[in-house]
Amino acid sequence: MTESNPLQETIAVKADHLYKAFGRRPHEIVKKLKAGKSRADISSLGVAAVIDASFEVKKGEIFVVMGLSGSGKSTLIRMLNGLWDTTSGTVTVGGTDITGVSAKELRDIRRKSISMVFQHFALLPHRTVIDNVAYGLEIQGMGRAERLAKAQTIIDLVGLAGWADNLPSELSGGMQQRVGLGRALAADTDVLLMDEAFSALDPLIRREMQEQLIELQAALGKTIIFITHDLNEAMFLGDRIAVMRDGRIVQIGTPEEILTDPANDYVAQFVQDVDRARVLTAVSVMEPVRSVITKTAGPRAALHTMRDLQTSVTFVLNRDRSFAGIVRDRDVLKLVKAGETDLRGIIRDDATSVSPETALVDLVEPSVESELPIAVVDEKNRLLGVIPRVTLLAAIGNVSTNTGALPIVMPPATISVSQITEILGETADDTQIDAAGVHA
User: Could you say which protein family the record assigns here (predicted)?
Assistant: First the structure.
């Protein structure tokens, strides 16, 4: 028996060099495309809807395929569940190659492994909500009592409690789409395909459905492949995004990667109007901490650091490198004059700290309310970097902070260098040894 590959088991869906051509001689079209001909070159023979598409979708991932009308995204998703045969290339679902399998095998794969939510709901009009949701289970041969109980659980999960006995015609568009989503979830397949599933909904309802989809995915761990032409929807939903143009995938990456490092001018133009504040996160824009010391460093070490960097504030770390707070130059200066050697009494919690995953939109208010950079900390409260206000505003506005000089990342000093140097000289004591400061 061949041993399974653990890495392979993490892949839910794999597309390998997929082509789909329509016309009288589709295989000739593909042959010419593989030889280097363009989509326009073969137009007299037919239409090349998908050209050499390859990607892998990990288990539990929301993978979004995004593109304008005619880019090939809907054709691509129909090949992933066998609605359309591939002209060339293979599709693997859960480790099983579904390319060219018999109709019976394909039906079994759909029942067990992959289900689909369509743009226009595709509900059965004369069946109630609960019977629509349970329809896939009925096809699987599940008993009535069991399938209705499971369908009711799903109905509650998608926010339709109390509507089980209503007909689709009695529901709003958003509620009908919840029924379609519930039917796909009730089938309990590993992979869920969604083709422009929310595009027919009003904007507010559409946002609610997007948020609910993310909540459901987090709770159920489904692998979701989502097709959309809406960039903001793609950025909001996708763990990774594949951008399509003229039948080809031109870039695959996380929302941040596509936004900050577009593969070509087309992608750059495509994402230029996206709401960057809702896509970019703290970790993508943070800067290294320049002024930082350990809590065990004495006041003199802290004052030296602030003098050398000409800043009025320095960040303080605990022994385990976790973030303790900040100290200000005037407070440190008082300790130095008094001959004190312990910083702990003046450490303040003025600085806002956030996780690396925090969206920039959530940083605007704390940034405006404080002169201090925002501290970015990990799950153990270790200081990873800082986000000065100028960096935050530049990131949101897609403006470079590189002006040929070092960016100001800390508040400027409120005490002159000469004054600090004078105080350090007056209070110097060969018997007093401060713990070393830390410069990062």
Answer: Belongs to the ABC transporter superfamily.
